[in-house]
Records
---
Amino acid sequence: MLDHIDEGKGLQVLSALRIDGKDGSLITIALNVPSGKFKKKDIIKVENKFLKDDDTNKLAVIAPKATINIIKDYKLIEKRRVALPNEINRIFRCSNPDCISNSTEHIESVMDVIDKEGRVLKCRYCSRVLDVNKLKYN
Amino acid sequence: MLDHIDEGKGLQVLSALRIDGKDGSLITIALNVPSGKFKKKDIIKVENKFLKDDDTNKLAVIAPKATINIIKDYKLIEKRRVALPNEINRIFRCSNPDCISNSTEHIESVMDVIDKEGRVLKCRYCSRVLDVNKLKYN
């Protein structure tokens, strides 16, 4: 279960993590749920979904307040907050069309997280500082 | 509440009806819910959403098994199945690029529902028979 997703980001998380229910698993999404801690939050519950590092990195960028709750046999067995790593490889695309990571040379993008609190990412190749709200996925 | 949405169509209905929670209203979506009547179904609950004719027509095309349940003060006050009208104006785009409804003359699309059961639509202008699973919205 993904809890405390920043209000209004639930559908974006769904799409970034490619949760679409096409595998037939039960999915529940709640948007704009009243929350004590923050004003409102979005929640996503998914059966049998194992988050890879790429998924938690996307989550940390899109919904930095999110918590990941792992539930097994109706018991909460793990609860953790998402956190940005020092660098994010591959998953996002640099917004600079002239950046070598966007060339035909198939170089994987590398972004340094230069401010974790403010979610500021910087392309290691062209040094462009990236707006996390406009990032495109590879 | 929209119940009995055809399995796997919930997110498409959400997008077609422009339900995105940006107005802050509480929204719950459940995908792949076990259902006695059909094998599985999707469900969408929305606060303060009034469906216009265009919305129910979209719903009838995308999720023909859907039921619309109107709940007020915790009571179910109306329950109805969606049904295709005889013609659908404006909301869908003809897939024929040469159709006059796609020209710059701003003519509204008109589609005759020639088979309600099989959900077959036919453009009144160019007579193209349209695949309901590939319709684009205007």
Note: Residues 114 and 120 of chain A are 6 Å apart (CA to CA).
---
Amino acid sequence: MDIEDIAKRLMKFAEDRYWEQFHSPKNLAISLAVEAGELLEIFQWLPENTPYDENVHEKASEEIADILIYAIMFSQKMNIDMKKAVLKKFEVNENKYPVDKAKGIAKKYNEL
Amino acid sequence: MDIEDIAKRLMKFAEDRYWEQFHSPKNLAISLAVEAGELLEIFQWLPENTPYDENVHEKASEEIADILIYAIMFSQKMNIDMKKAVLKKFEVNENKYPVDKAKGIAKKYNEL
Amino acid sequence: MDIEDIAKRLMKFAEDRYWEQFHSPKNLAISLAVEAGELLEIFQWLPENTPYDENVHEKASEEIADILIYAIMFSQKMNIDMKKAVLKKFEVNENKYPVDKAKGIAKKYNEL
Amino acid sequence: MDIEDIAKRLMKFAEDRYWEQFHSPKNLAISLAVEAGELLEIFQWLPENTPYDENVHEKASEEIADILIYAIMFSQKMNIDMKKAVLKKFEVNENKYPVDKAKGIAKKYNEL
């Protein structure tokens, strides 16, 4: 899946509707928080490990699409290279959580 | 940028650290909301259209990487095809906001 | 505990620091979402029913104070009477969730 | 307005409906984030300083009531004394943001 293609289509979609004026980074960050809240709402009262049904899957797909869409639009507006940002985060996390140490902590958690 | 490759690397990273046990859809939805809150915090007191500096760009890149990472992990756990979900959303939005109508509303907003 | 007294003290605190200029309803709604995200972060990887320790209690107290503070400031800016709003919500919820029906649903959930 | 009275009524309301089983601190923190997202949604595309109309006021009142209700329920479950928590936060903030320093920063912001 190619994020650049989605980005182009999103920019065109907004441009055609004169929506760019509303798409400040601050407003798009608000949109991301709003959509993340809507995704979370689906799981609000569900036990952590209930098998989810078709209805949950359908609603979650819609919210995750909104989140991805706003994340891409935000990155466009801020000139963020999402691929580079993710690769950098991988590097940070690999140093921050070395395999052996992380395994030990996970095991302890598991015994809570 | 290829989401499938990131997904594989993320799954391997979590597996190596025994972290899969924590990655229920509910917990990953919580993580998305937490990260969206951290992104929003950057803009909390900034005027809507202030030009952002290098520091804001750097912090925003980190948060957007976290959001993308959790969105991909969530989709893996829920068997959501992100590409399909985004394409479906495009279709919905193109019907919901026809160009002419959307332009009219945007214009009115603009005159507020 | 008297919300009006806290409200007065909060307004004075902001006024003394020339902070009122930043306290638009939109910005205060952002602050509430940011603080709710920080509260949620505490529980991000904790199992739902782990007994919480002193550290969790301490951090949760701080976040809940921030949430209450911003909720009061927001209400002041929007001329919302919090007491009236809560009493109205009670009425709505009592009609929406009659005791007998709600009990039945809770029982079914419980058997999941 | 007396938070203790609301707290008692909320506990009774939940108890009557067998809802206590769902009200873990983790779930109530989720509810707070969800409601904060709903409050934020109202302002998502509004310019920061638009005068708000009756409709915005009405919807904001409902969301702020939900936020206060969940904050009180969360505090009950965690044995948090909200009054004490707010007073402590006042003390922290008064030391963290001394009047003269805060004024200076606000003035600089204002000139952006």
Note: The two ends of chain D are 40 Å apart (CA to CA).
---
Amino acid sequence: MRSTDGYVKTIGETADRLIYDRDRTHRIGMPEAVFCLDKSVGDVALIVEHLVSSGVGPVLFTRMCQLQYDAAVNRSDAPLDYEPVSQTAFLNGSMAERNAHVGIVAAGTSDRPVALEAQRTLQFLGIASQLHIDVGVAGLWRLLDRVEELRRERVLIVVAGMDAALASVVGGLVGCPVIAVPTSTGYGAARNGETALNAMLASCAQGVVVTNIDNGFGAACAAARILAAT
Amino acid sequence: MRSTDGYVKTIGETADRLIYDRDRTHRIGMPEAVFCLDKSVGDVALIVEHLVSSGVGPVLFTRMCQLQYDAAVNRSDAPLDYEPVSQTAFLNGSMAERNAHVGIVAAGTSDRPVALEAQRTLQFLGIASQLHIDVGVAGLWRLLDRVEELRRERVLIVVAGMDAALASVVGGLVGCPVIAVPTSTGYGAARNGETALNAMLASCAQGVVVTNIDNGFGAACAAARILAAT
Amino acid sequence: MRSTDGYVKTIGETADRLIYDRDRTHRIGMPEAVFCLDKSVGDVALIVEHLVSSGVGPVLFTRMCQLQYDAAVNRSDAPLDYEPVSQTAFLNGSMAERNAHVGIVAAGTSDRPVALEAQRTLQFLGIASQLHIDVGVAGLWRLLDRVEELRRERVLIVVAGMDAALASVVGGLVGCPVIAVPTSTGYGAARNGETALNAMLASCAQGVVVTNIDNGFGAACAAARILAAT
Amino acid sequence: MRSTDGYVKTIGETADRLIYDRDRTHRIGMPEAVFCLDKSVGDVALIVEHLVSSGVGPVLFTRMCQLQYDAAVNRSDAPLDYEPVSQTAFLNGSMAERNAHVGIVAAGTSDRPVALEAQRTLQFLGIASQLHIDVGVAGLWRLLDRVEELRRERVLIVVAGMDAALASVVGGLVGCPVIAVPTSTGYGAARNGETALNAMLASCAQGVVVTNIDNGFGAACAAARILAAT
Amino acid sequence: MRSTDGYVKTIGETADRLIYDRDRTHRIGMPEAVFCLDKSVGDVALIVEHLVSSGVGPVLFTRMCQLQYDAAVNRSDAPLDYEPVSQTAFLNGSMAERNAHVGIVAAGTSDRPVALEAQRTLQFLGIASQLHIDVGVAGLWRLLDRVEELRRERVLIVVAGMDAALASVVGGLVGCPVIAVPTSTGYGAARNGETALNAMLASCAQGVVVTNIDNGFGAACAAARILAAT
Amino acid sequence: MRSTDGYVKTIGETADRLIYDRDRTHRIGMPEAVFCLDKSVGDVALIVEHLVSSGVGPVLFTRMCQLQYDAAVNRSDAPLDYEPVSQTAFLNGSMAERNAHVGIVAAGTSDRPVALEAQRTLQFLGIASQLHIDVGVAGLWRLLDRVEELRRERVLIVVAGMDAALASVVGGLVGCPVIAVPTSTGYGAARNGETALNAMLASCAQGVVVTNIDNGFGAACAAARILAAT
Amino acid sequence: MRSTDGYVKTIGETADRLIYDRDRTHRIGMPEAVFCLDKSVGDVALIVEHLVSSGVGPVLFTRMCQLQYDAAVNRSDAPLDYEPVSQTAFLNGSMAERNAHVGIVAAGTSDRPVALEAQRTLQFLGIASQLHIDVGVAGLWRLLDRVEELRRERVLIVVAGMDAALASVVGGLVGCPVIAVPTSTGYGAARNGETALNAMLASCAQGVVVTNIDNGFGAACAAARILAAT
Amino acid sequence: MRSTDGYVKTIGETADRLIYDRDRTHRIGMPEAVFCLDKSVGDVALIVEHLVSSGVGPVLFTRMCQLQYDAAVNRSDAPLDYEPVSQTAFLNGSMAERNAHVGIVAAGTSDRPVALEAQRTLQFLGIASQLHIDVGVAGLWRLLDRVEELRRERVLIVVAGMDAALASVVGGLVGCPVIAVPTSTGYGAARNGETALNAMLASCAQGVVVTNIDNGFGAACAAARILAAT
């Protein structure tokens, strides 16, 4: 992305032109989230201010870095519930709790930020979850010890980088929907998550579905669609 | 793949070593399917014969070309229910019908073989489906005319190649689980389905999940996992 | 690009060797623009000084970052009209206004710097424009509400990243020339804009043409060529 | 693409489900074209038969190979105007002639099928054109001899493979809209047209726009959009 | 590769110029093998004839297709021991048997040609082996049932395509050298074996080493180097 | 490339429009060559006929397959000197002999077609050469035995595929110009010659220059430029 | 990877959930190592503290940068033996010395950090080694001078970037196991180590095995597996 | 590349192990150059000190950044002749002047650092040169005005990024050796110089040879090899 020095000073004039998709919850059961990665610090602060003042319901912010959070709070004193590892913030609380539960399985500590993004998004959507970290297949017993627990979940999110073998192994052990999230951990042949992505897509376990690299948010939304469908 | 001339003559000696995963239906609710694309004509015939004689339950064959089907029937007179566009065959019937329904939406006629693979797999798994073809976004009204019908489905499979814009548009219109299947239709920048795959993964519609390119089978299995979870 | 520490101190000796293409407006109807991205801060300042002193007509600078702008103003007190979000500057004013209008459609706030580069370039070329932001297809009604307005434009520039589905949808709704600009927004499978680029090139909407990733300048120049041709 | 043996025998049952976008000429000024590359021989024959019997206006078929043409004529005795080098066919004549003209410039003989696809599509859309072949930059005088002629065109389509340098040179010499079509000629580093595509996108000539690799059809549609806009 | 029609008729004149590396067994413990994939049918026949007449010791031919084998036998009546699935041939017998054993583990039937190339190469090098097929991780029990047997091997070769998860799981279960061979089985995101290759290189199991895609020959040679080192 | 069935029947009408660059020998010291790979059988025959009848000097055809050669001879009884392994043909003899010599070094038998294309092109340009085949670095002594001979050449062409290590080793042993030609031999990670190409470009031996993959013709032309410059 | 500001403050709550694979030495002869590259500074400090307090045996940390080391020492006063070039640290000493020796050969000074990672990992595993640097093939005599010395090693690790020709040359000179480690040195066509990786995989020297780019740790573990197997 | 904090403190112990290839000038006519890009600041300073104290002849350093230069001068007071734009330094002067001249042609100001690296390397090798900047093909007259001047050179180096069309145009206008250097200027589809590289390799101008991206040093060494060969 291009640098966006000075972005703040012009957005002010056009902030009223932003079109927040207020109807989305009605259409698809989830509100529009604000993805902060490609937005300047100033933009995010203005968007938060705009949403605070316009009285929308709960809004989720993803990929909000500490600087963006600080700027938003400084500008509008917004009541943001911010969690820094997952880089998520809730504005105006979260959605009503549902009677639903999701299991999240992550291969290693490096995959934790993505797993937490999924968990926080689920929490925002009113869905409880249980996180299992450090169960990569190099120490297979760590996973096998939990198979019975995993089999009791209605949906599983599997988060893994590098070879992403965990998704195939889990997919062969359980019958519930398995949403695989490749992560950008690793180096060299891990190719910033592309290898994990492709390995999950080419998984020998049938019916595993996949999201974008590092997209814990998307996995949680998919889980919410599934739980709503049942 | 390497050519495999003569494969038939040696597989005979080792066919008894093939390990069909008979326990899979118990573990994940679906039997192991036999993927024929990388297998020689003779191999497929031998595997069919072996499965016929060993008395397993219903088995699905995918990517079975006409030559493989002919060889299998010639060798063992197997009761295969073969459908040539989807390149699928059922051995020993199919699974018990479930009270479940899936919508399949395909952008154009070129995507039809993949859409049919999904439909046939669903049929094998006991799940009814409705196929909507030629609803690509270049003629948006064709899709908008059917929105209400699509909103009544519990799961949607969206099949599209080239720009794969259909997945994003559908994902923004419905709240049920959306399983996107990229196809290898198109040329040049379509990159044999990679562009559709990446566009679906990077979709602006939240919670759309994706399968491998041309993987109608995988999409149907994912739908079955979802319907079983509900 | 290699780092270019110290570039300033040697360019001074050779600045008189730079060959500004003064004849370009005569040949193609637009002056040569100075692309600053791969140039050092010192180089840009020297080029500005050189152009100021040599008495050329209006010159457009693109991808000029704040540091380059500051250095140029410090060195030569050049009368630069700088806009920081689009990173554009006008030297010696702009070209004569034409009786022409262009519509610019951008999928989201993250695409705004590119859309503004197009708008500022059009302004430099004497062409008025209207900018429509936040009309991505995940909330399709935002676009459909404006179709009649868009159909009245003689040229449309469509700016979108990630899945770039907006270009296909717009291309199927209007008959005027559609210039699609992919942006580098998104992450993972968005592949720094390559997915949007390829999706636009493989668009199912016939006759959509494409520029380089993030190239708002090029889209505006193409629009100017079209408007001059009419 | 998967093989589609036997495709013919099932499409018959569903041909009535094909949705030809009859409204497209009204919306965008051009009818829907039928792209035959990813369709089986039998499918194309059925689509031709279906369109013949349903009484639509002029229809263009692109990437129709000789086998598909023969099958279509055998089945329905359709009045197809077929040209084999461009692999195009007109059903029910072509659109009304417009008072418009386009220049097509192609680097070498190998690029001729793509240039002819553009020319035939223009002819179908009622637009005359002049084709200039073998004017690649390795013999620059061949192009320079024709500059004045090219400058008189309202739109230029430039077709080139390998290094695609022709697009940049032409783009620097004329002020009219330049639509660049990369071709898949060449080998090795030509990468099946990707190098030409990227070189055209990264062209140093401002305002050159680009279509998909080998997409003469798309370039002609873009030219028609431009000529309609004027 | 370029087509090489007529290759036979000129190679005859220069066959005496071929330099077979007779010293290789002395230097590295294995003779030079003849890789037939990029050679014409006639070339292979001439090379066989040349080696037969020049009295070398045992020679291994890899990637020799049936046509090449037939031509070689027709021309020189060479005493080739040919195995068609692995596409290997032994000329003048094989090397002396060593007191050594290797385990070969393959994920599925589609990986069998590559596994057999490894097994035949080992046999040529005088090394016995045991082949385990159809032990992919989607049915994990098939592998776990054999762990004790695998732990008794001094070297393991793991052959797998698609997600290649088998290499990571095996690498985490045994302490002996693990040589991973990616195969080109699969489609789409399997990317002709690149995904398996990268997943094996990025494996979470420490100390797994990798060969080229489909390179059963190389894996066997590596095993021979290891067994010779002990 | 698209298929070009029927190409012959239309080229006849436009063959007089082909512009052979008769001035090229004057400008750059070498005539234009006709590259046949992307041309149909009929096109090549027509071009040969056209050149025969128009009385040009010597012309080189490259990548001319046997079918194209047969068609050309059948149509115009052209006096073509054809060599099938290199796929080259001379029309109207060759250029005057120069007092110059080039060494060609090829790693293995599989690289021979490319090495012969270089040798035949040199012969056409009047330059003698010596070919050294089977000197790949896996048997380093084969190369070291010839170092003194190679050091006496004024230009060396090095032809190698796969790892292309030969170019670096030769480049470190001699001081004359080294033109490296990557070949598409190998499989998997050889990536159709891209690995050899990149390895040659990234060679640790300084001043090695590189041509396109399999481009023996280009290497010979570069050698001719060098020899003419001296 | 996403930024992980603030990671420290939350990991504290879950550090007790980390599952260190204590059984790994029993299973595969080597303990689990902690890979620090994708972990935040705070995470690494917490993991060190956790391992110190829980009384495990020797632990190796790889890719630990100076900041991570400083934070770990500040927090827990851990007895870390840190070496900054290789970015490795030993906690609680190292494994018992084995009677084993490995040769490490590196092409140039730039490859030294990776070579040292291999050497330090071997030292941690109780294995002595000898490092040979600056023996790239551009100055072939530097390698040839040491051939006899290299032939006496039981295992060789070859570390090289750019063209990676060193691996092929060494592989053709010695018969012991050769573990090739590509490095990310070089620029442009070196493609961050991919070219070296592919060249090593496609090596003309038979039986060379390969690790991930820059993976000196993996090469050392592979050597340890080999030495344990003998 | 991995970070190499602390590299300085360990290299001291092993600096005596560096093997400078003193024999290279004798073998290939040029001394070994020290490539600084992948070396730490401390390493470069130590290497300079080592070379100063060991009394070698002239040594060229390339890609030496200002920090490395400052550290080297601080440590050893080495008599380095440093030029910051080209990032080159001469130690102990340069080689004897030859009676030779090279022309360097660069498309734009952004390509100047690479062009200067070529010029400085030539100067180090005793070869005079003339630099022509800002002659890109978008303003073709700038190049055509200089054709006669360029035709008088014995060797031409052409430096260009983005579409790299300049190399093809120059290659078609002159008969001397043309060494093309792609640069990493541009963005998006320029792909960090890969597009320029591939376009130069696939150039329609026969006999153009190519170096790595941004490799002005290599181009100058190739020119020196050519001039020495004459």
Note: The interface with chain H takes residues 107-108, 136-140, 162-165, 167-169, 171-173, 186, 188-191, 194-206 of chain D (CB under 8 Å).
---
Amino acid sequence: MVTDLWYFWCICALMPGPRTFRALVNHYGGARAALAALPDLARRGGATGPARICTREEAERELKAATALGISLLALGEPDYPRRLQMIDDAPPLLAARGKLAALNLPMVAIVGARNASAAGIRFAERLARELGEAGFAIVSGLARGIDGAAHRASLATSTVAVLAGGHDRIYPPEHADLAAALLDDGALVSEMPLGYEPRARDFPRRNRLISGLAVGVVIVEAATRSGSLITARFALEQGREVFAVPGSPLDPRAAGSNGLLKQGATLVTEAADVIDVLRPILGQPIEPSAEEPEAAPPPSREPGADERARIVSLLGPTPVTIDDLVRLSGSSAAIVRTVLLELDLAGRLERHGGGLVSLL
Amino acid sequence: MVTDLWYFWCICALMPGPRTFRALVNHYGGARAALAALPDLARRGGATGPARICTREEAERELKAATALGISLLALGEPDYPRRLQMIDDAPPLLAARGKLAALNLPMVAIVGARNASAAGIRFAERLARELGEAGFAIVSGLARGIDGAAHRASLATSTVAVLAGGHDRIYPPEHADLAAALLDDGALVSEMPLGYEPRARDFPRRNRLISGLAVGVVIVEAATRSGSLITARFALEQGREVFAVPGSPLDPRAAGSNGLLKQGATLVTEAADVIDVLRPILGQPIEPSAEEPEAAPPPSREPGADERARIVSLLGPTPVTIDDLVRLSGSSAAIVRTVLLELDLAGRLERHGGGLVSLL
């Protein structure tokens, strides 16, 4: 848990840049080592202003307010950070968590679905959440109306985790404030956003990667085509999580998304055993980084020279290129290319697109 | 089409024994050759009475009545017998068909499901039948209330085939007599049962093998666990037909069977294209016998000797054994063993269990 102001400030300074932080942690072998290297790296990358860096005063205020609200700040790479979430490509550098933190290291199943769910969908989500809770899984979801809320409510007595799209003091939807408070006894609320952050529409899809990232598997109960639940399912696939879907009538538009997932190979769920049978064997396995995860590299034996840096920067432009291509075309080692990219990234000049693609901003 | 009394009588004489007739047709290379060998074979097998043989007078009456009703009698192995049905293990020796016989050689999709179907199930069956009809498939089903009736009705304008569990003059359920009459214009009614035969409960599962046997693929729209539709699905699998199922809510007991089929690997259907995409490539392929089909053998070069026959019979008992084991243990050729089995079968002393298993009655 983060209580050291300097440490906290450094992490804040990187937000929102989870991919960059991830690359740093991999590169330097841990959050503290990465942060120690940070100021120098950012300067070399050509950082010209504090645009992405919060001030020391802001950091102080945030840390004090968080503590007052009973919020713990968990840093990527530290032992109390949720283990499965740590393995995703764009794990948040800092996770603000409130409630019973032990819940975050239970095996979790995500149950997500439509806000305008049918009565049958709500009833099924409740039954599934209750039975998976009794089987020892914490239920993670997004605190939304409909399926999410039903899943949380039915797992209050066991353990349930809600991932917020805004800050801890900006519960959305407001009518779920009581539910959010109730789940703290045996579960937790988590957010990657600072206090006071009001969630916008685009923050919800981004938040969904944390719901799937925390879980071993994701169950989609009712989902229309092009719904947020399908975004969660896509993240789950990218992160190597198991994807489950609950079937519905082809004439019910709320089932179109989940039926579509079934056609694409999601596991069909009509009872908790369908989920448990798939997940039990996985729980016994060591937690592995997801497929897209870049390999951890030892710290570079030397720093990039000015010529090397210039050559690599000249190969970059607004069109995304792969890091592999940069290594090949620059003639530099992969370690040197990665260091230059980190420098650029910290200076706010690089965009990471996932899949090893980068471009200059 | 069968119009020859002697021929018809011989086939009648074998009913109900489709596996036996199948073995005869395979053994002698055609229905006519098999029938010519029949009286002698039956005598050698130890036939003691006419228990399974209808009288000449009965045959005459049946043929006359059938002709009067516009019924055509199609014999297994003859050119006008439906080609896919011909390939199943227990194809009926004789098929009584009424209506537009050309419909029986269109590619067919079976649509079957619950009698107490939901409004949504009915609507979906109608939509699917109409769209598959427009795509050139005849729709085959069981004329039952609910899904079956909906599928027939929606494909009246294209082509629909109903398989009866009783005789042509015993339409069941009676309120579907109008539907049965209406489908004759562009489709057909078929039955393996003689005129006047009142269907009993156990005739419906038996009839279901013809629904799947006529079709390239079977779509189960709504089916409870342990329902007749699941029997059709099982036949379809045994016959190497494609199995499709329409998903439904896990809380709807009418979807339990179809969801169960999906878990077992049936193709999920939410629109006609899901069926067409799977079946189109199959239609281009030559029609192959199903996996269980015994190989066609040339007529035996010699008849079995009395010693050989006695040895083979002594190896048989009430416990089913495989024909392969009989060949191995008797030391006789496969052709000789098959001939002895046919003799016993025609004498009413053999039971064929499928999967190459036989026992003495």
Note: Confidence is low (pLDDT under 50) at residues 290-300 of chain B.
